[in-house]
Design a protein that fits this description.
alpha/beta; six-stranded parallel β-sheet; 14 helices; binds adenosine-5'-diphosphate; binds magnesium ion
């Protein structure tokens, strides 16, 4: 791994891809976790005499400059955290003659932030011309955006192909946390998959069957499995085009020595609404009118038992619609069980990580990944292009 301690940064303009894709509401940042996670790398580079030029995407502006996706609020917030100025190099083109001049004026230890890289059409297509423009701004590249490392974009792969490159502190931490799970997980190794859709997690489901000793499927995606087993799931979320796939996966599992856990009871209600009246039913008794929005207490017990004996646990995707009480209980119970379990635990996925933060158990979990898709691809055993390109980059 090409880590920061191998680089020389004094007096150099260092381009740093960070993940400032923060949640926003009405122009305000609602969660600053991602900004805080970038500080260690920025401070390291500043302390080592670099001129730091940060870049990130925010949301999906689809190649056009749109004010609502501007990184201006992030620059302001970052300056507060750093306790010093951050120059926001605002430009709808991201890189322009003006931006180039501003960067030339930077002094050692100063920090600047480019505008949203996705304002350029060349970002997501890893366009050569855009990557050249970005690369022309600096002499060294640091990839510290784990969450986008599974994508080959101009601001990660494009730069690593053109400049001597390193991974930042956050990416280093992520890769070190995942390494033992990927190579030789301590067993029993249990995966808990939940969240909205089976279709988001097909790759990981199929892949984990060959690796884990226990597999728990919860969240909305469990209902596709329950329906595939022939159960009536009422108005619960189901992906009808994934029923065959769910059957195939269950067949493969039955050929293996895997403890497979699906909900045995669920919390049902008429609609997904705060404090709506709800009840717990066995999965055979969902009926046609109601929908399942969480797992029930018996299912929670089964999962708890599994977690108490596990040595490695990965969790991606909430067990229910945790944002909307009373459907938070399953997710909360899993988080608590994970916190108590002696297992080495990794949680990935934006919503799952948010749930753990909300419950206040973040410190009890061994590693909370900043990458949803990226963490899933790692667990699938895939190579992340944004990391691979850094490893292959030329030497300084
Ligand atoms: P992550 O971001 O952790 O990968 P996902 O994005 O896949 O998780 O899924 C999270 C969403 O799934 C949440 O918004 C949650 O409300 C929803 N969800 C989970 N279980 C259910 C359910 N039974 N019915 C409806 N929505 C659900
Ligand atoms: Mg999500």
């Amino acid at each position: 791994m090409k880590t920061l301690d191998q680089g020389k940064f004094k007096g150099k303009t260092v381009l740093v891809r960070v993940d400032f894709n923060v949640p926003m509401k009405d122009g305000e940042i609602t969660d600053t976790t991602r900004i805080e996670r970038s500080l260690e790398t920025i401070e390291y580079l500043r302390d080592h005499g670099a001129k730091v030029v940060l870049m990130s995407h925010l949301g999906r502006p689809k190649g056009e400059a749109k004010e609502e996706f501007s990184l201006a609020p992030v620059a302001k917030k970052l300056a507060e955290f750093l306790g010093g100025p951050v120059q926001f190099l605002k430009d709808d083109q991201v890189v322009s003659p003006d931006v180039k001049n501003w960067v030339k004026e930077l002094k050692e230890g100063e920090v600047a932030l480019l505008e949203n890289t996705r304002f350029s059409k060349g970002e997501e297509s890893n366009d050569d011309a855009f990557a050249e423009e970005l690369a022309s701004l600096g002499e060294v590249f640091v990839n510290d955006a784990f969450g986008t490392s599974h994508r080959a974009h101009a601001s990660n792969v494009g730069l690593a192909q053109r400049l001597p490159s390193y991974v930042g502190k956050l990416v280093e931490k992520e890769l070190k946390a995942f390494a033992p799970v990927l190579t030789e997980p301590e067993r029993p190794y249990v995966a808990i998959l939940g969240g909205a859709k089976v279709s988001d997690k097909i790759g990981i489901l199929e892949n984990l069957i060959d690796k884990v000793d226990g597999l728990v499927v919860v969240g909305a995606m469990a209902f596709t499995f329950l329906k595939a087993m022939g159960l009536e799931v009422g108005k619960s979320l189901v992906e009808d085009d994934k029923l065959d796939l769910a059957r195939e996966i269950m067949e493969k599992i039955s050929d293996k020595d895997i403890e497979f856990v699906l909900p045995i009871d669920v919390v049902v209600a008429k609609k997904l609404e705060r404090d709506v009246s709800s009840k717990v039913v066995a999965i055979e008794d969902i009926g046609t009118d109601l929908a399942g929005f969480d797992i029930g207490p018996q299912t929670i017990e089964r999962i708890k038992n599994l977690l108490m004996t596990a040595k490695t646990v990965v969790w991606n995707g909430p067990a229910g619609a945790f944002e909307i009480p009373p459907f938070h209980k399953g997710t909360e119970a899993i988080a608590k069980a994970l916190a108590e379990s002696p297992a080495f635990s990794i949680v990935g996925g934006g919503d799952s990580a948010a749930a753990i933060e909300q419950i206040g158990l973040a410190d009890e979990i061994d590693h909370i990944s900043t990458g949803g898709g990226a963490s899933l691809e790692l667990l699938e055993g895939k190579v992340l292009p944004g990391i691979e390109a850094v490893e292959r980059s030329r030497n300084a």
